[in-house]
Design brief:
The protein is of the alpha+beta class. It folds into 4 domains: about 80 residues, no CATH class; about 80 residues, no CATH class; about 60 residues, Alpha-Beta Complex (Type Iii Antifreeze Protein Isoform Hplc 12), CATH 3.90.1210; about 55 residues, Roll (SH3 type barrels). It has 5 helices and 15 strands. Strands 6, 7, 8, 9 and 10 form a 5-stranded antiparallel beta sheet that branches. A 5-stranded mixed barrel has the order 11-12-13-14-15. Strands 1-5-4 form a 3-stranded mixed beta sheet, covered by helices on one side. The protein is elongated, with a radius of gyration of 35 Å. The N and C termini lie far apart (about 105 Å). The relative contact order is 0.09.
């Protein structure tokens, strides 16, 4: 008897597998192979489907347990062991190109998919986010890079995917006319506005010369390269040691005087100020270049 079952099972394995949608095998899927299961609610789950690209054969022992669970009378020797496989999406280059293009958040950007993951995927939708991009190296915006995304199946499961892409855009930005060194203060004649290819993943590029000129560099910039905000030291309206004008409230009176900043700060920062009249310090909020606002006690 065991030999007979084995022979029938082996013969069935060579037959085409039944394709199922999603990650569950339903009664309707099983009934397409074994009509006796047509009496079961078609939406009843009878087991897990294999992953995309794989096959699953339900053994005769398991099939008997399923039949018993649903009260189905079936001749196991006659029907054999059914095989199932999940329907795959057949997603190709065109779908990856569309998904990557849709993810770009910069107008005028162009994406070219050079390669992509080719593992079998279920039916679903590709999704790429800006966070999944590796970004091209600085200074070579048109260099290929890896962009990782996912496919959301119809059942809600997520499958990792990737694409090797080249993404560029054109923008008019501030560029260096000559090599600029770390620690150097940019002079107006060392920069100009120029339309160049940039990476949509590079943020903080300047569109006005005044945004870069007069500021100090935190790293070297090659000639012809855009100057990003991240390469410049933060602008501080107050520097330690500067004389600042103080607008203060002391009791019921509004007073103003000049004092000495003890720390540097940007607009909105709280910094320590020294009152030269009495040698006392107090805290004040930076409101603009070398101007602060404070509320101080009359003892100051």
């Amino acid at each position: 008897m065991k030999l007979t079952i084995l022979l029938f099972s082996c013969a069935f394995l060579h037959a085409a597998c039944i394709q199922v949608s999603g990650d569950r095998i339903l009664a309707r899927d099983l009934s397409s192979a074994i009509p006796e299961f047509g009496s079961v609610d078609p939406a009843q789950v009878v087991g897990y489907a294999p992953g995309p690209g794989a096959q699953r054969t339900i053994s005769l022992g398991e099939l008997g347990r399923i039949a018993k669970r649903f009260g189905v009378s079936v001749d196991l020797i006659k029907v054999g062991a059914p095989c199932f496989e999940q329907i795959t999406s057949g997603i190709g280059a065109e779908e990856f190109q569309s998904a990557v293009t849709a993810a770009l958040q910069t107008s005028g950007a162009h994406a070219e998919v050079l390669d992509f993951s080719r593992s079998p995927l279920p039916v679903g939708k590709l999704d790429f986010s800006m966070n999944g991009a590796a970004h091209p190296p600085a200074g070579t915006p048109d260099a290929p890079f890896m962009w990782r995304g996912r496919l959301m199946s119809e059942s809600g499961r997520s499958f990792p995917v990737w694409a090797k892409v080249k993404v560029t855009a054109e923008a008019t930005v501030v560029i260096a006319l000559e090599p600029l060194s770390k620690g150097q203060t940019i002079k107006p004649e060392q920069v100009e506005l120029r339309a160049v290819k940039v990476s949509p993943f590079t943020s903080g590029l300047f569109s006005e010369l005044g945004q870069a000129a007069g500021r100090k560099l935190k790293r070297d910039i090659a000639a012809g390269q855009p100057i990003p905000a991240a390469a410049l030291e933060e602008v501080k309206e107050v520097l330690a040691g500067d004389t600042v004008h103080v607008d203060a409230i002391s009791g019921q009176a509004d007073i103003s005087f000049d004092a000495k900043a003890q720390a540097s700060g940007r607009k909105g920062d709280t910094v320590l100020i020294l009152n030269p009249a009495n040698g006392r310090t107090f805290r004040a909020i930076v409101i603009e270049k070398n101007r602060v606002q404070a509320q101080i006690s009359q003892t100051h």
